[in-house]
Every structure is written in structure tokens, then in C-alpha cells.
Amino acid sequence: MDFANLGAQLNAGTILPEGVVILTLLVILVGDLIVGRTSSRWTPYVAIAGLVGSLTALFYQWDISDPIGFLGGFNSDALSIVFRGIIALSAAVTIPMAIRYIEQSGTSLAEFLVILLTATLGGMFLAGADELVMIFVSLETLSISSYLLTGYMKRDPRSNEAALKYLLIGAASSAIFLYGVSLLYGLSGGETNLNAIASNIVAQGSEPPIGLVIALVFVIAGIAFKIAAVPFHQWTPDVYEGSPTPVVAFLSVGSKAAGFALAIRLLVTAFPLVADEWRFVFTALAVLSMVLGNVVALAQTSMKRMLAYSSIGQAGFVMIGLIVGTDAGYASMVFYMLVYLFMNLGGFTCVILFSLRTGTDQISEYSGLYQKDPLLTLGLSVCLLSLGGIPPLAGFFGKLYLFWAGWQAGAYGLVLVGLVTSVISIYYYIRVVKMMVVKEPQEMSDAVKNYPEVRWTLPGMRPLQVSLVLAVVATSLAGILSNPLFTLANNSVTNTPLLQSSVAMTQDAGAPVQLADAEINQ
Amino acid sequence: MNQGIDLQGSFVQALIDLGIPAGSAKALWLPLPMVLMLIAATVSIFVVVWLERKISAAAQQRIGPEYAGPLGTLQAVADGMKLVFKEDIIPAKSDPLLFTLGPVIVVIPVLLSFLIVPFGQNLVITDIGVGIFLWIALSSIAPIGLLMAGYSSNNKYSLLGGLRAAAQSISYEIPMALAVLAVVMMSNSLSTIDIVQQQSGHGVIGWNIIRQPVGFLIFWIAALAECERLPFDLPEAEEELVAGYQTEYTGMKFGLFYVGSYVNLVLSALLVAILYLGGWDFPIPIEMLANWLGVSETTPWLQIIMASLGVMMTLFKAYLLVFIAILMRWTVPRVRIDQLLDFGWKFLLPVSLVNLLLTAGLKLALPFAFGG
Amino acid sequence: MNLAEGVQLVSLLLLSAMMLGAALGVVLLSNIVYSAFLLGGVFVSISGLYILLNAGFVAAAQVLIYVGAVNVLILFGIMLVNKQRDFTPIPNAWIGKLATGVVCLGLFALLGAMVLGTPWALSTEAAAGDAAIMLIGEHFFSDFLLPFELASILLLMALVGAIILARREFLPDEDLDQPADQVLTLPERPRELVSAGSTGNTADESGDR
């Protein structure tokens, strides 16, 4: 085979953003090996610079003429660019909040960054993977690095427990996913490319074979685990509670975004024959996630567990966009993921800050925090209210767009469930805000009474502050100035040929959504 | 290159001439090479054990066995007979099933590996495409048997010995496989026949030891470690672990371990000869000699001489390596387990990776010399 | 039926019986060491099936990776962790076992029906046989290049992660200030520091040899 020719065919420029991340992680790994312990002074900034570089590369790929790279293995279309951007951005925001946390826990920072970057890399590749082998390898890259990150605090038994649970359940779900994918490979007569699979299966007849339905169920099990949809969510609360908080922040945004990207690409491309079925399954998952996530969150006493259940509920909201399958639906998913990134990461930054200063994350310990630390109170309140969907904040517009898209497509039942559960969610978010703001000085919790003096000059605190302020500003402004994000989300959908053809097909097929929806209403 | 003698063809043809149907003739041929190889492997043990005793004795200024047979050559047979007639003791509280299976699992892969050892152009049981890779794969089964033996003996020395053996085996498999990979890269084939073919024709200059000196050393060290020979015999280090995983064994079960380790030594030596010392190839190219003497390469008697010389060359090279291994046993002190693992992972592994990379580079830069 | 076909059929039946028996043993036996050894049996039988499919390289790779590496590591884990212990029987455990059995049988029936009911698009090409090695290599460097290279990052990271989880922590100051009896509970710590230094030297020496 002619190598020069092959090199041109590969179109390797499509993975330039990932290449930047790989380079960064190698620089950190080797640099840390050479320099030793003192490297923790510069490694986080190198990592952030690398991720920003990767984002820049993504920006310049927006109007790429030939998005298919590596002979069909990787697709750098607008949708994948947006999701890769979300993942890279979530890692970039996670790093500043991790610096102090990791230092305080006495573990080494460089390896943490390397594993976090590898997880980011896996997620980014997953968002653009267009072929089964690539999907699986990148999914495993993301998963295995997530397990390692979860167990990073190896002296903490809770972290060990979380890592073990996550590993066992994750490995089982990977195996199930792999089985489903192998069925796809067999059904299509030995194809691994998603488009080829779809066309081969369609070519065999209009009646979907039973194997395809089973493959669909298994694949959905794998995806639902990644996005933590009920009933594949059991790992979430334990893992969120036990693992290091920065890791939780990344898992709740980056890993979830990668899962949604995978869901869109795999389901829309490879399963056109059973589109009604997967929409129906996802409707069930969405309803269950919204109801269970938000209701159980009411009863939580630990902040991290509450955020875990809230993230399950949020995943349910995002699934509405996937189910309706219209332009507006996909665009609202992207938009919601973008605002969710800031508000959720902002919330976790505040949780980290609070637990660094007091060593606890019980909700009751937050009472009266307003008196001691107004900035933290403000940040946490803004982020939580935004998560709940209180008007001028970003979360409100995200939810509004999702529900509007759902209503337009006729998914009335889903939207109603969404509305009711988001009202429930407002209750538990406001409970925390009330705890912090309204309490009288004598009702202050012990942790807040002993609250240390707020000092941002300590090593590693400044990045945390920057990260907090950035997230809060983004959360408050993204609501009012949401137009650029809105345009970005819309363009990403309209520029993606894959989604355009699927949207056209959905409309031809006569809105299967109502069908699924009608069944829910019964 | 001439094709040598087609033993299978002649044998089947002879039987067909005797009036036996072709299918049966082939079926009759099938087990023959395998049985021959088993016998050869068994005989090789006797030779090696005798060599070991004699050379060890010489190294320690003793005489060694001298009464059983001329020069004590039958001593190994006597040992074997003794083991066969010994009572087979299965310790109480051991796991009888695993205790019995352990030695079997250790020996079978070693004997199976003889499938791919060629003694001449056609003197190989099977020339399969995966060739040398099959041996690497098979040799990785042995640790399971060692762990089984160590665990089932219900003895801490046995368990420690088994764990050490398995750790050692998996650590040294990687540099060994990488060294083999460099050779395979030069010959563009995993088949042992192709690997020897690629070295032959130029005498000693063409042998892989010239082009792969580092690979040769890595492979030899790793092979010694895989065979648990000194200086890497810590799984059965007497001073620390009594006899490691063999502690509780007696009779023929111990005999199987004994057989396994010596056959493994011969096998490793044979493979070093094939991979790095040109296999059946003569140090001076025989074709050149024949041309000087004015004899055609296809003359039948020359072919027979070449074939027998080839077998002898292979065996000679292998036994030379066995001799070196035995000599090393009495000259090199045993390493510690942490040194062993450090050496494997921190030294041999990087060096073999560099060797592989270097070979790839040389293959691209100098294709005429490195099998481009 | 000629000799080759008969041999193939018998081998297929034997290997399948071996694999199913060993797999059932892995799941059903209560002795975890037996399960681990039987798992090796499952892997070997699968490799035999690959040979029957004329995929010699995959068979050898299966033995090398699954038997030689994965199974040995599993055994290592089992033997190093703790000694065998009988669990106290749980009352009414049979309900759980029954439910598991029913679920498994149901899944088996479903998958069996699916396998039999699906018109599989079988490839008509002859098996590549020994040429498979070349084909695999070509795929690795053309259409599967990206996953192949990504796997190297994955492995590197797994290596780093495994070392992080396994290595002894750098001792922080407060641990060193603890009383002497604390040190006695971990006797290998002071010794480890000494041997770590000497190990490096001896490794170098043996490298020079």
C-alpha cells in the first residue's frame, strides 16, 4: 500500500484538537517525570493551556469541508465539534478547582491531570467516533480513566468503594454494550462503519430483524449507564458521594456529554429501522429519570448525593430533546448541555470550596453560611437556582427551549412530566439556598461557626476563585445574553448532515413521537 | 533454494506402492513425526541430564556418575526408573485433583511446542503460519500449571514458589516476545522455516546473531528465566523455599516437572539456534562448497548429506547453548526476586523495545541487510 | 464425509462440550480457585474453536492474552488476597438462585430464538488462513488506525493508573511523627526505603554484566 497516498486519505487534520490534548498529556507526564514533585506548580496551567488550544483548534474546524477522517473512523461534523468543545471545556473548568483539592489530599497532581486529560480525550473521540471499534475503544478510554479518577483518593475508603462499584457496574455495562454492538456487526454482514451498517441492514428488507431490537436494547443499556438514566443509575449516588469532588464535576458534565453525543450518533445513524422503538425506550428512560431523580433528591442530606440525583433528573430533561428528534430538539440538547456545564460545574466548585474549608458536605452544615462567606453563598445560590430553572438565569432558558421543542413536536406528556418534576426540583434547590441565606446567626451550624477566615492567597485557591467567578458569571449572563450560544447550538444541528437527514426522515414518518407519547399517557 | 527431501511424499508413495489406499497411507504417516519427536524429546532429556551431571561434576572437580553405563551415560535412565517406581504420595489436606493436574499442564505445552521446531527444510512436524508465535502462546500456559501445583500442595513454600514462578514467567515473556518480534520483522514471517531460510545462504555472516546481538542476549536471558535455570531459579531456590512448587511432589509427578524443565531447556536452546544461529544452516555455505567441488546441488547423495548435516548442525548448536546454560549454573550466583523483577521490567523491557525500534529503523534504512 | 470433516465435527463437539462444561463450572462452583482455573479451560476451548475456524493467529493470541496474561493475573489476585473461607449460608438463598436461573434461562431462550430467527448475512469469502496476519496488519494501519493508536494512549494511561493505585504512598510528615508502635505495624516501610536504593544499584550491575 502506498503510504503517501494513505496519508492523504486519512485526513488526519480532523483529529487536531485531540492531538493537542495528547501532546499536552505527554508533556505533563514526561515533564513531571523529569522535574519531580515541584512540577505541580506549572502542570495544571499547561493542561488548561492545552485544553484551550484544543478548543481553538475546534473553533477553526467549524467550517471544515471534509469532516470524515481516518477512512470513516472519525467524523468531525458540527455536532461532534460542539460536543467535543463541551467536553474539553468541562475539563478545562474542572482543573482549576482540582488543584487545591488534590494538593490538600496529599496525592500527586500530575498523574491526576494525565488521567483527567485521557478521560477528556476518550470523551472527545467518542463524540466523533463513527465506527464501532472506534466507539468501543474511546468509550473504554473514557470509562477506564473515570474508574481510575474515582479511586484516586486511595486512602479514603469511600473513594475505594466508589471506584469498585463504578468499575464493576461499568464493566458489566460495557460488556452488554459490546454484545449489542457485535450483534450489529453480525446483522450488517461484517460492517463496522455506522452508515454502512444502517444501509446494509436496510438493504436486507424493510422488516427489522429481531436481532436488531435486541442489539438496540443492549446498546441503550450501555449508553444509559454513561448518562446515568434510571434504571441504570444506581452507581451514581454512591460514586458521586465517594469520589473526589472535581472528578464528580467532570463525570457529571464531560462524561455525560460524551454519552449524549454517542447516543445521538449511534442511535440516529445505525438504528433508522427501529427509530420508533428507541424513541419509546428513551421516553420511558426520560420519564423515569425525571421523576425518580428529582423526587429522591428531595430526601438527600448530603450535598453531593443531592447533586447526583439532580444530575439524574437533568439527564432526563436533556433526553426530551433526543426523543423529539427535530432540529429544535437536538439544538435544545446542545444548548442545555452548554448552560448545564457552567451551572453544574459552578455548583461543584462551591461544594469543593465549602468542603475544603469545613471538611463536610452535609446540607445542614451550610446553614447561615451567608454571614461568613457571601461570595460562596452567592455563587452556590446562583448555580442552584439556575439548575432549578429560575427565570433570569441560564438554566431557565435551557429548560424553556427544551420544553418548547418538545411541545412543538407534540410530546405533550413528556413536557408535562418535565414541568412538574422541575417544579419539584426547585423545592430542593431552594431549600439549600434558604438554609444558607435566611438562617439567623444563632441557627448557624457548627461548621459555619468555625468557618476559617476567607483567604484566597493560599496556594491553589486563586484558580478556584477564578473558576467560581467564571462559572457564576457565565451562569447569570448566559441567560440574558443567550443568543450566541443559541445560534451556536442551532448551527451545529443545521450544519450536521447526519441530523438533517434523520430529521427529514422523522417528519416523513409522521411524528412517531406522538405515538410513543400516547402510550405514556394511557 | 532447493526443497530438500520430501520425507512425507516418499513415505506415502512407498505405502501406496505396497497396495495401501492413499487415505490410509496419509493417516499412517500422520502420527509418525509426532511419535518421533516425542522420542527425540525424551532422549534429549537423558543427554541433557547426563551432560548436566558430568559438567557440574567437572566444574566442581568431581568425577560425576560413572558406574551406570559407560561414563555414566545411563544414570539418567536409572534416575527415571527410580522415579517411576517411587510411591506416589498425595499429601493430606492437599487438593488431589489440582495436585495431579499441575505437572501435566506444565509439561504438555512444552511438548506441544516441538510442533514448530524445524531440523531441516522439511523436517518439521508442521510449518504453520503463526509458527514462533504459537510457541510464545504455549509457553504462557505453563504458569497456570505452576500456580496450580503451588496452590494445591497446601504448603507455603509451594505457594510462594508457584507465585514466584508465575511472576517470573510473565515478566520475562514480554522482553522475549519483543526480541522474537524483531527477528520476525526481519524475516517478514512468523514461520520458523522462513526465519531460518532468511538467515541461510551466506554462512555465519547471514545469521541473526550478527544482525541482532542485543536481541540474542535478551532472548537468551529471558529463555533462561523462563526455564527457571540459574541465575533465575528462584522459584525452586533451595535455601529459601526448599524446592518451591515441587516441594510436596514425589514419584512420577515430580518426574514430570523434571522432564518439563529439561525439555524446556532443550526447546529454548533449539529455538535460540533457529532464531539467531541459522538453524540447520552450515557456518560455511554448503552450496559454495559444492560449487567448488563441482557437484550439482540436486545430486541425491549431496542432498542426503546436507539433510543429515542440517539435523546435526541444529542439534550441535542447541547443545552448545545447553552447555553454556549448565556452565552458567556453576558460575553465576542467584539473583533476588526483587532484582529479578526489576531487571525484567526496568532493564530488559526498555532495551528490547529500543531494539525493536532500532530494527524497524534499520529495516527501512538498509533493506538489503535487514530483510526490507 | 471424509476424514477431515469427521475430525472437524468431533473436535467441534468436544471443544463445545469442554467450553460449556468449564463455563458452567466457573459460574456454579463455590470454590473460587476452581472457577479461576476453569476459566482458563474456557479460554483454551475458545482458542480451539478459532483454530477450527481457520484463524490460527487469533487462536494463538487468545491463548497468549487470555490464558497467559488475564487468567494468570486473576489467579495471582485470588492467591495473594486472602485465604479461602466458607461463607455463612444465607437463609432462603435458593430464591435468589432460582430467580437468577430463571432470568438466565429466559435470556438464553431470547438470544437463542434471536440467533435462530435472524437471517445472518454470512460472508462467502474463504477464510484467510495464514494470510490473516497480513490482513490484520493492513487493517491496523488503514481503516482501524485511529482505534489502534488510541489503544496505545489507553494502555499508557492504564499503566500510569495501575502504578498509582499500587504504589506505596510517599509518606507525609505527620505519619513519621507517630509513635514507634505505629511503625511496628508496617515493618516493611523502613526496610523498603533501604532496599529501594540498593535495588536500583543491583539492577544496574546485573544490566552491566
Explain this structure.
The complex is a heterotrimer of chains A (522), B (372) and C (209). In chain A, α2 runs antiparallel to α5. In chain A, a hairpin with a 4-residue loop joins β1 and β2. With 522 residues, chain A is mainly α. Chain A contains 23 helices and two strands. The radius of gyration of chain B is 22 Å and the shape is globular. Chain B is mainly α and 372 residues long. In chain B, 67% of the residues lie in helices and 0% in strands. Chain B is built from 16 helices and no strands. In chain B, α8 crosses α9. Chain C is mostly helical and 209 residues long. Chain C has a domain of 42 residues. Helix content of chain C is 77%, strand content 0%. Chain C contains nine helices and no strands. The termini of chain C are far apart. The chains are: A mainly alpha (522), B mainly alpha (372), C mainly alpha (209). Chains in contact: A-C, B-C. Chains B and C meet through α6, α7, α8 and α16 of B and α2, α3 and α9 of C.
Describe the strand arrangement of the main beta sheet of chain A, using strand numbers.
Answer: 1-2
What is the mean pLDDT of chain C? 77
List the uncertain runs of chain A: 510-522
Globally, the shape of chain A reads globular
Helical proportion of chain A, percent range: over 70%
Biggest protein-protein contact in the assembly: A-C, 49 and 34 residues
Strand content of chain C: under 5%
Write the element-wise H/E pattern of chain C from the N-terminal end onward.
Answer: HHHHHHHHH
**Secondary-structure content class of chain A:** mainly alpha
Number of strands of chain A: 2
Total helical segments of chain C: 9
Could you tell me the mean pLDDT of chain A?
Answer: 87
Radius of gyration of chain C: 25 Å
Main beta sheet of chain C: strand number and arrangement?
A: none
What's the story with the biggest beta sheet of chain A?
A: 2 strands, antiparallel
- Continuous helix count of chain A: 23
The 3D shape of chain C can be described as globular
Give descriptors for this structure.
heterotrimer, A: 522 residues, mainly alpha, 23 helices, globular, C: 209 residues
